[in-house]
Specification:
mainly alpha; 0% strand; rod-shaped; single chain
Length: 148
């Protein structure tokens, strides 16, 4: 082997085999050719397909989000309707519970009405007795029924 003198002492050099570097150069040239050719176009088509499918997914998510917002916007109105129904129900319950306390007063009023009815029956009976005692004939209006 021969010794070769290289430049100045400030510069560092390494001796490496050229075959791996040559292989890398060939690969780079091959990739550059493929980029211009069919493989590059196929790769770009795949990327464009992925972008389109991603855009479709984004569009579907946006639509679903809008629908969800619409449904969520309806919830406060539904809650108000529900609260109103509950208020009405509670009012009905309050009225029903209030009548339970008035049951005793209703019983008293019914007793008074029964007593008044008894008095009226006695009065009617006494009127009949006086009528019978006076021997006045009782006349009832004649009712005619037409048959067709």
């Amino acid at each position: 082997m021969k010794e070769v003198e290289l430049g100045t002492e400030d510069e560092n050099y390494e001796v490496i085999p050229l075959s791996p570097i040559r292989r890398l150069e060939e690969r780079i040239k091959k990739l550059e050719k493929e980029r211009e050719g069919f493989a590059y176009q196929g790769f770009m088509r795949e990327i464009l397909d992925l972008i389109q499918s991603n855009q479709k997914l984004v569009d579907e998510i946006v639509k679903a989000n809008d629908q969800l917002r619409d449904e969520l916007a309806k919830i406060p109105g539904k809650i108000d309707e529900l609260l109103q129904a509950w208020r009405e129900f509670i009012d009905v319950l309050k009225e029903a519970s209030g009548t339970e306390t008035n049951v005793s007063s209703l019983n008293e009023k019914f007793d008074e009405l029964i007593e008044q009815n008894k008095e009226m029956i006695e009065a009617i009976k006494s009127i009949k007795r006086t009528h019978i005692d006076t021997n006045l004939p009782m006349r009832y209006p004649k009712i005619r029924i037409k048959r067709t």
